[in-house]
Amino acid sequence: MNNSLLVVLIASGIAYGTPLLYGALGELLAERSGVLNLGVEGMMLVGAVMGFWAEQRVHAGAVLSLIVAVLCAAFAGMVMSAIHAFLVITLRASQIVSGLALTIFAGAAGLSSYLGSDLNLADVPAHHAFHAVFPSSLQNWPIVGPIVFGQNPLVYASWVLVAAIAYYLTRTRPGLNVRSVGEAPGAADAMGINVVKYRYLHVLAGGALAGVAGATFTLAITPQWVSGITGGAGWIAIALVIFAFWRPELCLVGAYFFGALQALAPELQARNISLGPTELWTNAIPYIATVIVLVLVSWRGARRRLGAPAALGVPYVREEA
Amino acid sequence: MRVTVERRLRQPRWLAVVVPVASLFVALCIAGLVLVATGHNPISSYRRLFDAAFLSNGALDQTLIAATPLAFTGLAAGAAFRMRIFNIGAEGQLYMGAIVGSAAGLWLGGRGGASPFVIAAMIVAGALGGAAWASIPGVFRAFFGTSEILTSLMLNYVAGYILTYLIFQSESYWRQTKGFNATVFPTGKPLPSNAEWPTWTLHTQGGIALPLGAGVTVLAAVVLWVLYRRTRFGFEVQVLGDSEGAARYSGVRTRRKILAVMAISGAVAGIGGASQVGDFSHALDGDPNGLQKQSYGYSGIVVAALARYNPFAVLLVAILIGGLDSAGNALQGADFPSGLVGVIQGIILFTTLGGELLVRHRVRLVRAAESVAA
Amino acid sequence: MATITLKGITKRFPGVVANDDVDFEATAGEVHALLGENGAGKSTLSHIMSGLYRPDEGEIRLDGVPQVFHSPRDAIDAGVCMVHQHFRLVDRFTVAENLILGDRRGVGRKFQLDPGAVVEQVRMLGERYRLPVDPRARIWQLSVGERQRVEVLKALYEEAKVLILDEPTAVLTPDEANTLFETLREIVAEGRTVIFISHKLNEVKAVSDRVTVMRAGKVVATVPTAEATPQSLASLMVGRELDVTKRRRSAAPEGDAVLEVQDVWAPSYRATTSLKGAEFTVNGGEIVAIAGVAGNGQRELAEAIAGLRPRTKGTVRIGGRAIRNGDPRHAYRAGLGYVPEDRLGTGVAPNLSLSMNVELKSHRHGTIGPFLRMSRMRERAEAAIRTYEVKAPGPHAEAATLSGGNIQKIVLAREFAGNLKALIAASPTRGLDVSAVDTVQRHIAEAADRGVAVLLISEDLDEILALADRVLVMYEGRLTPVDRRDDVDRIGVLMAGGA
C-alpha cells in the first residue's frame, strides 16, 4: 500500500514541493508588501551554493553543520534580495527589470556558478544532509507513514512556517500593516506606517526564504551542488503565489500539487504506464493552470475579492519627501 | 541634513547619454572589485574578454552570431515595453518561431523551391509562430485585463516543453529518424540546403561574416522605428502607452492596439527563432541544454532596458552583450571564472537601473527645518 | 482642548513658493475656515499641519507647545487629524480595520488583532456623531458619502483635538453637507478645533466662526465670519472687486436642434449613478447646463454621448446623424467635441508633446498613406499655442509640465478645431485659477455665439448661472428640467432629490 502510486506521489510531491513552498512563501511576503521580485530563481541558486559551501566548511556534527548551512543560505538569499530592494524601493527602478537583472546576475550563468566553480564545489559529496527524522517503524505506517513521517526537518519546518505566516498576516497588527502597504501605501503612510521599512523587511525576508529553498536542493533533495540545480523552481514559485491567491495555506496545497506533477512522469515510467505525451502535460500543467488562475482573478468581479495586492509592482512615492 | 529626491521638470538631453555611459563604467569598476575579492586580476580578465569578443581571429564573427538573437529579442522586448506592455514571453515566442520556421524550411525546402523563396517563407512562418504565441497573453490582456507579465512568462515554459517534446519525446515531423546518430541521441531533422540562410562576407578587416539574420535585424529596427514614430498606428500606440484614458478618449481602439503590439513583438522574436534555425543550427534544437539554456529571450529584455527601448540602440547593445556572451563561452575553462559574464551583465543592469533615477530626478542634500524660526 | 498656531511657515516647491511666511491660528471650540482659490496654498498649509509636508521655515505650536511632525503619524499622535479630499482608505479592508490601522494607543499597542473590540467602539462613535456606518463593511462596498463618514470617524477614533477637513462637501448633496455641518458644530462644542478648507463662499458663511483668506501663498486676512459678506470674501480671495455673478450670455439663441439625446440609458457600477432615460435637445448656439452634485451620473451621461460608454438604450444624434454606440471616433467625425472632467488623466497624454496632444484626434487627417506629416503637426500646435495664449516653451513641451489652466487651453484648442457642431464641457473650470476660469468660460460662450450647441456639466452653480440658457438637474441618474434658469432654490432642491 505504501508503494501505491498515489501514496508515492503525495510523499514525493511533498518532498519536491518543499523548495517551491519556501520560495513561494518568500515571494508571497514580498508581494503582500507590494513588491514584485522576479529574481527568485537567482536567489535560490545563490542560497543553494552558499548553503552547500557552509556545510562543507563547518567541521562539526550533523545538526550544527546543517543549521549553520541553512542560516548561511538564508543570509545569502537575503543579500541578493537587498540589491533588488534597494533598486526598486529606494531608487524606484522598474521592479520587472530589476528582478530579471537579479536572475541574470545570480543565476546559472552568473554569480551562483561563479561561486560554485571558484569554491570548487562541483562533484563534491555532501558531508551531511537532511534525512528523515522519525524512526522507520513510524515510517512504515500505512499511508501516513511515508507521507507524514518520512519527511526531513526542512519539510516540517515549512509546515510551521505556513501556519506562522498565515497567522501573521491575518491576526497580527504588523500583518495588517503590511497588507495595507501592499494595498494602499498612501493610506498606510498617512496612518503612520513606514512603507519603506515594511517593504524592505518583507523583500529581505523573501530573499532569506528563497535562500532556504535553494538549500533544500543541495542539502536535502540531491544533495550535491550542480550549476543551475534548481531547474526553474524559482519561476514556479512565482507562479505558485498567484495560483494560491496570495494565501500561505494555498501555497502549501499548490506546492505539493506542482511537486507531485513533477514526480508523476518518472513514476509512471517506472511502472511502465504510458499515457502518450505525459511528460509534456505534467510539465506544462502547472504553468497552464497558473495562466487560467491569472485570467480568472483579473475578471472584474473577482479582482476586488481575490486579486493581487492592489499596489503590487508600483513604486511608492510620498507626495513630498 | 536630508536627502531629497525631486522629479525634474525638464530632462536635459546630455544626461540621457552621459548617465548610461557612466553606469557602464561604474559597473565595470564594481565587477572589477568582485574579481579582485576572489583573487582574479580584473584588468587582465577584461582584456581577455574584450579580445575574445572583438579582436581575436574570428571573434567578431562569433560576436555577431551571439548578437543576432539578442538583437531580435531586444527589438521584440523594446517594441512592447516602450508601450508599457511588458512582454516577458520573447523566450517562448522565439521557440515557437523556430518551430514554425523550421517546419516551413523543411517542407518547402524539401519540395525543391528556390532558396530566396524558401528563406522568405521561413521568415514569415517564424513571425507568424511568434505572433500567434504572443497573442495568447495579448488576448488575455486586451479582453480580460490580465497582466501580460505573468501569463507571457508562464507560456515560456510551456513553449520550452513543447520544443523538447517535439525532438526528445516523440517522433514528430521535426525529428530526425534516419541515420545511425538518430538512434543514439535525438536531434532535429536537418534543413535542406536551399533552406539554409546565407552568410555574407564583408570585405573589411579580413572579412566579417554577416549572417542574413543580422541583416534582418537592421531592417527590423528601421521598420519598427518608422512604424512607431512616423505612422498613424505608431501615434496611437504612443498615446496608449502613455495614458490609457487619453487613448480611449481619443478613439484609439485599445484592444486592437494591445493585440497588435503583442503580435508585433512576438513576430520579431519569432523571426529570431527562425534565424536560429536558418542561420545557425540548421535543424530544430529541442535539447533542454541547448537553445533553452541560452535564455535569449530574457537577455533580450536586458538589452532593451539598457538601450532604453530605442531600436537602433538595441542593435548596439546587442553587439556589446553578445560580445560578452561569446567571449565568456570562448574563454570558459579552468582559469577563467565561469559565471563571470552573468555577473558583469547583472552589475551593468543594476547600475543602469540606478542611474535611471538620476535622469528622471534630482537628488539634493537639504538642511532640515527643525529649529524654531527667529 | 487645543489651539493650533502657525508662525512664519514657508514651504517651497520647484518653481513655486506654496506658503510664504504664513501666520495662522485656530482656537479651541471654533470652526475656522481656510478660504482661497486653487493654488492659494491652503492645501499645502493643511498638509504641513497634518504632518505630511515639512515646512522649510517656521514653527507649529499646539497650546503654545512647539511641535515637530516628522510624519502624519506624529501629527495624529499629537491630536491633529486630517480628513482628506481623496480618501486615504484601504479598499479591501473593513471599516474597522481601516480605523485601527496605525493606531498606537490602547488596542493598538497589542500585537494581536482583536476585531470585535473595535466593532463596538465604531458603532458607538457612529451613533454619537450621527455618522452611521457598518464596521464590518468593506470600503469598496460603500458609497462616497459613507466613505467620507469613515474618514471623519477615523479622526474621532484617534481622539483628534484638531480636525482638518479638505473640501469635504465636494462629494456630498446639500442635505449631506448640512448634516456634516451639524456634526462639526457638535465636535467643536466639545472643545475640539475644526479647520475647514473650502473655496465655496456660501459654505464658509454657513458653518464657520472665523475665516482666513489666502492668496498666492500668503495670508490676506482673518475675519469673523459674521462680519464678512460673499462679496468681501471674494474680493479678498482674488484681490480685486469681483462681480460675483457675471452673466455671459446675452440674447436667447435661435438655432435648430443639433444635439439630440433620446431616452438614453447607460450602466454604471452603482445603481445610483447609472443613467436612466436621459432625454433633451440642445439647439445650435444654446448652452444647456446639467447641474448636480458629482457622482449622480454626469460622467456616465457625458461618456454615453461621446461614445466612451456603451448605451444600453436610446439614441444620440448630432446634426441629424445618429451616432454609433460606443464609437468615440464616430462622434468626433460627426462634429462632437468633448472637454473631459479629468484633464490630466483623459484630456491629454501627459508625457507626450503638445504637438501630439493637439493632434490627438485629428492625426488621421491629411496623412500620406499611413505616414504622419510631422511638420504640419508642429505648425498646428504652434498656431494653437498662439491663438489660445498658452504659456509653454514650445510645441515640443510635455503636456504635464504645463499648469492646469494651460492644459485646459490646449484641450480647448484641440476640441474647438475642425467642424465643431456640438460641445460637451464637463467641469471645465474645476481647479483653475480665476483668470483661467475667465478665459475658459469666455471661450465656451464664444463657441455658443458661433452656433455651437454646448452641453455644460458643472457642479459650480455660479458658473451655471453665468453661462446657461437652460438648466437640467441630475440626481441619481435622472434628469429634471428647471423652468427658470436662475431659480437657485429649485435647483438646490432637485440636487438633493426632492421634487
Molecular structure report:
The complex is a heterotrimer of chains A (321), B (374) and C (499). Chain A is an all-alpha fold. Chain A is 72% helix and 0% strand. Chain A contains 15 helices and no strands. Chain A has helices spanning 5-32, 40-57, 62-90, 95-106, 111-118, 136-139, 144-149, 153-171, 173-183, 185-190, 195-221, 233-243, 248-270, 278-298, 300-306. Chain B has a domain at 67-308. Chain B has helices spanning 13-37, 42-55, 59-81, 90-110, 115-144, 148-168, 180-184, 212-230, 232-242, 244-249, 254-281, 296-306, 311-331, 340-360; strands spanning 2-7, 199-202, 208-211, 361-366. The relative contact order of chain B is 0.21. Chain C has 2 domains: 4-238, Rossmann fold, CATH 3.40.50.300; 257-495, Rossmann fold, CATH 3.40.50. Chain C is built from 17 helices and 20 strands. In chain C, strand 17, helix 15 (434-449) and strand 18 form a beta-alpha-beta unit. Chain C is globular, with a radius of gyration of 24 Å. The model of chain C is unreliable at 240-244 (pLDDT under 50). Classes of the chains: A mainly alpha (321), B mainly alpha (374), C alpha/beta (499). Chains A and B meet through helix 4, helix 5, helix 12 and helix 14 of A and strand 1, helix 6, helix 12 and helix 14 of B.
Low-pLDDT regions of chain B = 368-374
* Helix proportion of chain C: 25-40%
Helix amount of chain B: 55-70%
Biggest interface between chains: A-B, 51 and 51 residues
Number of discrete helical segments of chain C: 17
* Unreliable stretches of chain C: 240-244
Task: Please identify the structural class of chain C as seen in this structure.
Answer: alpha/beta
Average of pLDDT of chain B: 85
Q: Name the helix and strand elements of chain B from N-terminus to C-terminus, one letter apiece.
A: EHHHHHHHEEHHHHHHHE
Kindly list the characteristics that best describe this protein.
heterotrimer; A: 321 residues; mainly alpha; ABC transporter involved in vitamin B12 uptake, BtuC; 15 helices; 72% helix; globular; B: 374 residues; two-stranded antiparallel sheet; two-stranded antiparallel ribbon; 4 strands; disordered C terminus
